[in-house]
Amino acid sequence: MTTPLVSIIMPTFNQARFIEESLASILTQDYRNVEVIVQDGGSTDETTGILERVAIADDRVRWISTSDAGPAQAINKALHRVRGEYVGWLNSDDIYIQGTISKIVTAFLNHPSWILLYGEGSHFDEGGRHIGSYPTKHPSAGLKAFRAGCFICQPTVFFKSAMPVLIGPVDDSLKTSFDFEYWLRAFSQFQSRIGFIKTELAKSRLHSGCITQRLRSIVALEGLALEKKYFGEASPHWAVTRLEELAEQYSFAAPEFLRRAIEFLDLAREHLSEGQISSLRQNLEQSNIRWE
Q: Is 12 within a domain?
């Protein structure tokens, strides 16, 4: 079998707790023709020391540390340094399952028309404990299936290095949903060329420091904005999910919940209709919460 070079890009910032495990999940793969491109955003913890040590031990690792505006910008910088035929994107707190890279190379070689593929994934916590499987759907579900939420687990995605040339860079104006937007863009332009491997390829770590956990309101607001951009209107499920999260975090009738709910709905007005906003407010009012 031919062994094309696979480039794994890794944005990172202050992830010394996890990055060595993430790198090991790449470097110990049974597929050896890999380069790892780490784009560090100027970490102030032990990240760069770990990178220096790992790169000395394994020359497949290249890294640079410089300030950036966030992970999306780091990803775009790393993409400019890619030399491989296929590209994976692994965050520095996630891990690949053993055998993943062999599987994706075989899949691409067997399906030369594919420009992007993904597989099944799961969530695990800071201590490595399994949380649950990611709600993945087959590409045949189509673009509209994204209206119920993102059904692609980001670290399971691999694509041909030509794809960023064809569809452009990651949207670095987004703070949390740049991966979701990239999948929407790929499905919009290449749905018939997207493949799927029905096996677990990666694990995505959920912890207090990760973006999707820290910036929950931004996740919801960007989800609403992307739905409106790609489908003409946004469904309220992103807003409902955020309100449910707030209700779990605070007592449902507590003043702090009320304040945060009103604040969030005011921001969501940009993306939802007045009827949708009124319906959400009515649902909250039925729980005897006064809005005045």
A: yes
